[in-house]
Amino acid sequence: MLATSVTLGREPIARIDSAMPATTAPKPASADKKPPLQLLLAVLDEVNHGLLLVNELAEVRYANRAAARDCRPDQPLHYDGQRLRAAQACDFDALLRALASARSGRRAMLTLRSARSSVSVGIVPVVARPEDGDTVALLVLGRHDSVEPLNLQFFAQMNQLTPAESVVLAALCEGLRPVQVAERGGVALSTIRSQIGSIRQKTRTQSVSHVVRMVQTLPPVVPALNVCRPDASCVSSGLLAQGQMLAAQV
Length: 250
Prior knowledge:
Blueprint: E1 2-8, E2 11-17, H1 37-45, E3 51-54, E4 60-63, H2 65-70, E5 77-79, E6 84-86, H3 89-102, E7 108-113, E8 118-129, E9 134-141, H4 149-158, H5 163-173, H6 178-185, H7 189-203, H8 208-216, H9 237-249
Antiparallel strand pairs: 1-2, 3-4, 3-9, 5-6, 7-8, 8-9
Helix pairs in contact: 4-5, 5-7, 6-7
């Protein structure tokens, strides 16, 4: 085999050419072929993190379904039909400053608060339409829960956990100790320890912290049972319309 160098973009990458006949080698994809926009939007809707494209005035250009779900009026960051708003005036001022800094290519991280909750927001500069001079920033919303309940349910099913073991695992993911799990369920501590041993065996993990890390690091994919449909109450029709506008502009 011969080591050669190929270039993708500007970066050279080492490649090992095999002895496979040239006729059976896969053909490279055309550099001009791009995925359809609707396909890209569908991909973004499957990511269980809120993603929004906004301009310097916090006017929404696009939001995926997770963002539509998380930007309800009772949340620290919400949508008023045209632009994003924050529950606290000082947080909105900080958001506008971060969006203005995005024009200079600066990234930022904010924590927005309301009376009941808070959300972390990452601001990433993205120039979507340079010909219009419209500097757009990508807003990435933090998760509200460390463990998505339906992801936990899917994990339990894939590892063939019993309903009782699933309840114990959920409590452990909340940070409860085995004695606290026993008190909550009104069962003996020995029963909980036996169920934890079964969970570890089925998931092939070495400790409670190991299995909890496995659950916490599950991919942020929207569970099938949690997918919002266009007519569902958890989806803002205004935010969905922004996605349609984006598709029409491209």
